[in-house]
Amino acid sequence: MKDDSFLKTLTITHLAGHYSVCVVRGIQDDVRMEFPRATVNVALDAYPNTSDTIEDILVRSINAGCEGFFVMESALFPFLDNFRSAHESAYFRAFNKRIIAVARLGASDRERLLRHDSMEVTPNILLVDGNEPEGMIDLYTTKLLPAEPRGIVAELKLLERIRVGNGRIELLPESLSKFPDKLTNMERRRPLGQGNARSTVPANYSLQADGTEILMVLELCRRHNCTLEIELVANSEWGQVYPNGSSDGLIGSLIDRRSDVAVAAIYRWYAR
């Protein structure tokens, strides 16, 4: 995709408020983007003769303060393959991560993207699919739907189709003036019955839950329109990580990514 003026307008509009921006590219990509904030250029395959892995490169970039990511097409899947593990290894935590990625969304790439396990942890993503012969640019984001008994299913949602010519695009259409943010409103999956939470194991049971930690999570869901889903661990203990890397209990539930939050003081009963 060669319309640099449109990409520049898009990135400045949506990433200018970040502390710094990572431009993630392949070694063959010629990217000349100027941002009003600090920029970290990351070439994912630029160091073939060193022991650095792609995850190592991303961890250093994240720790340098990257909150926004502009990802070129050749680097998209290597970036996504290492996105979750790199953020778990980094010590810098950004609350407003955004990704703008150039992608060719043909049938095979579309299927690979939507099945990628990083879709759950990259909700705020904007995909730019350019059709140079026709002079068109399609902009997509993902729509996350609930899977049973847990997890998500991702679909693509077309936001806008833009015709670009030889002129510079200085302003975006109204539909693109705001970044497709999925964390402000998580589109609550309402609990069954009259409870305030939902059981995942066994599935599809309505729960009434209480307790200090639970009330804090419920307040978070009230503000962001999400649903509290509860699963009791098998041994009802905090658990631990063993020397061989295995884990159990509440800690194991977090490490295995079955849960987002682990709490102990829960009062619960099945609701009607």
UniProtKB/TrEMBL annotation:
This protein's name: Ionotropic glutamate receptor L-glutamate and glycine-binding domain-containing protein
Source superkingdom: Eukaryota
Gene3D superfamilies named in the record: Periplasmic binding protein-like II (3.40.190.10)
